[in-house]
Amino acid sequence: MIEGNDERRTVKVSKYLSKHLRHQPEKIGLTLDEGGWVEIDALLAAAASHGFRITRDELDHVVVRNDKKRFAIEGGRIRAHQGHSIEVELGLPPAPPPAYLYHGTVPRHLDGIHAEGLRPMNRHDVHLSTDHGTATRVGARRGRPVVLTVDAGAMHRDGHVFHVTANGVWLTRTVPPRYLRFPGAR
User: Which GO terms describe its biological process (predicted)?
Assistant: First the structure.
C-alpha cells in the first residue's frame, strides 16, 4: 500500500511504469520479452538504480488501483496491456467487436481524421472504447473532447480485424474515414 494513500504518488508511479513498460524500457536498462513482459524484480531493481525507488507494495497498489487497468501481473512478471510504441506481440486473438465503438480526440485533429481516418500514430493500434464516457475522458486529456463513433460492425463485416485487451480496450490497425461518424454530421 502506498503510504498515506498518496494519490499523487500513485499517479507518478503509474506514469513511470507506462513510460518504461510501453515506450522506453531501455532508458532504465530493461529488456521486455516479445510479449512485453519483464520480471518484476528486474523492473524494481532497474527503477531503483535509476533513482526511482518503487516498493513491491506500491507496484501492486498501482496495478490494482489504476483506473484504466493499464498493467497485468502474471507469474512474477508485469506488462502494460496496450499502448506500446515499441515492438511487442500482445498475443490477443481476433474478436468480433460490438456494433459501435468510440474514439476521443480534440478539434485540431478533425481535418486529418476526415481525410485519413484514425491511424495509430506512434502506437501499434488505434484504441477504441465501448462507451462514450470513456472516449470523452480520453479526448479531454488533450483539450476539449470530441467523440467519434466508429461503425465497428461494418468494419468487421468488411474484413477489418479487432482485438480486445484484458482491460476492455478495443484495438484495430486503422479506421478508414467511411466508418466514422462525426458529431453534428448526419
Answer: tRNA splicing, via endonucleolytic cleavage and ligation
Q: What is the pLDDT of residues 40-67, one digit of tens each?
A: 999 999 999 999 999 999 999 999 887 6
**Chain position carrying cell 478508414:** 176
End-to-end Cα distance, the chain: 50
The span from the CA of 97 to the CA of 45, in Å, is 40
Separation of alpha carbons 155 and 141, rounded Å? 27
Residues 66-107: tens digit of each pLDDT: 767 889 898 999 998 887 878 877 888 999 999 999 999 999
Domains of the chain: 3-80 (1.10.10.970), 101-181 (3.20.170.30)
